[in-house]
Design goal:
The protein has ten helices and two strands, in the order αααααααααβαβ. It has 191 residues and is mostly helical. It has one domain. A two-stranded parallel ribbon has the order 1-2. Helix 3 packs across helix 4. The longest helix is centred in the middle third of the chain and has 17 residues. The chain starts with a helix and ends with a strand.
């Protein structure tokens, strides 16, 4: 099973494992700003570029749009600005440094300068750390888990992600169709 299929399959079940900030953002209708003159509110330009590369490595462009196409990095800036308090923003931004630390330790260059295979290897290392990471309070999730959740929620809550081939986008309000056979639909639907 490739990464996209795994994300597609798990996205339906993701709700029970979301961190508080990501869940609040989804419920609150957090969206990435699509304006061409948009400027980040919480992130620096370098941090925004780093997020763009991390998100695109998690969900790359293939025959369907990737995380950059869905503006997941902008979504994360909106998430941090509107749904994280100052203490959680600081934790999140301080923890972000681990991507460059791991990259420089292994390849002697920043994460954004790595090739795709090197980026995937760094994310693999961090994913393993995240799996072993324990936070009994639930207040400080591992940075990789938090970014992965934000990327997936940002992707599937964007129109680009919803219409990009993984799901079918249905605008609301639409006609009500009661019990219908799944085989006639063919895809999971995003509202």
């Amino acid at each position: 099973m490739d990464r996209r299929e795994a994300l597609k399959a798990t996205s339906l079940f993701l709700g029970y494992t979301l961190t508080a900030g990501t869940a609040a953002a989804l419920i609150g209708g957090c969206k990435a700003e699509t304006n061409s003159e948009w400027m980040p509110k919480t992130l620096s330009t370098d941090q925004l570029d780093l997020f763009a590369e991390i998100c695109e490595t998690i969900l790359p462009k293939t025959d369907t749009p990737g995380a950059k196409d869905a503006l997941c990095h902008r979504y994360i800036d909106e998430l941090l600005t509107n749904f994280y308090d100052a203490e959680k923003q600081k934790y999140f931004l301080d923890a972000l440094g681990v991507f460059d630390e791991k990259s420089k330790a292994k390849y002697s260059k920043a994460f954004v300068a790595l090739n795709i295979n090197e980026k995937e290897e760094i994310l693999g290392i961090l994913a393993k750390e995240a799996k072993e990471y324990k936070d009994d309070t639930g207040e400080k999730p591992h940075i990789f888990k938090a970014i992965k959740e934000a990327t997936v929620s940002g992707y599937f809550s964007s129109e680009v992600g919803a219409t990009g081939g993984l799901c079918a986008f249905v605008s609301i309000p639409g006609p009500y169709k009661g019990c219908i056979d799944y085989s006639t639909v063919g895809k999971a639907y995003v509202l």
